[in-house]
Amino acid sequence: MRVTATKTVPGRPEQVFDRVADLSRMPELSPECVNVEWVKGDGSGIGDQFKGWNRIGPAGWWTNGWIIERARPRRLVVETSTIYGERDEPTNRWTYEFQEDPGGTRVVERLDTLRLPIHLRALGPFLLVRWLQLKFGMNRTLSRLSRELAK
Q1: CB burial readout 23-46, b (16+ within 10 A) else e
Q2: Residue extents of the structural domains in the chain
Q3: pLDDT tens-digit profile of 44-81?
Q4: C-alpha dihedral over 4, 8, 9, 12, to 10 degrees?
Q5: pTM (global) more than 0.70
Q6: pLDDT digits (tens, 9 = 90+) for 96-123
Q7: Confidence tier at 83 by pLDDT (50, 70, 90)
Q8: Selection from 21, 12, 28 nearest residue 141 by Cα
Q9: What's the maximum distance between 2 C-alpha atoms anywhere in the chain?
């Protein structure tokens, strides 16, 4: 599964990259993410690891995550684990790309599913609902980012 959202937001790529790369503040932008805690490193280096908590309505879960690419100010890539077992195997890859644009910085947020977890495979045709939830959430995240940077 692949979900992508794009928006031009105010600010230079360095400023926008720094804001998005501050994952501990992602709950201020994301409608699903409620907390991010660094467990190895502080988010400034490749391999730094975090634990992230998410919620949709009454359903909550946590995953492990790792920074796998940090090319300031162009690209940030994070992988997150499944919600089962030791959670040490990446399931999703979140990519953020930043490109200077006449209106500020064009941000592309992309989610690629590396391995579809069993709970999502069981959804079958309802997987479209999850795709729509993710698309809505990503557009909301970028809109919140834009409003924040416009201040």
Answers
A1: beebbebbbbbeebeeeeeebeee
A2: 2-150
A3: 999 999 999 999 999 999 999 999 999 999 999 999 99
A4: 110
A5: yes
A6: 999 999 999 999 999 999 987 776 677 7
A7: low
A8: 28
A9: 46
What CATH superfamily is the domain 2-150? START domain (3.30.530.20)
Residue 23 has phi, psi (to 5 degrees) of: -60, -25
Residue 98: HSE in the Cβ half-sphere, 13 Å Cα cutoff: 25
Alpha helices in 22-126 (DSSP H): 118-121
Cα separations in angstroms, 106 against 114, 123, 126, 127, 132: 25, 33, 31, 28, 22
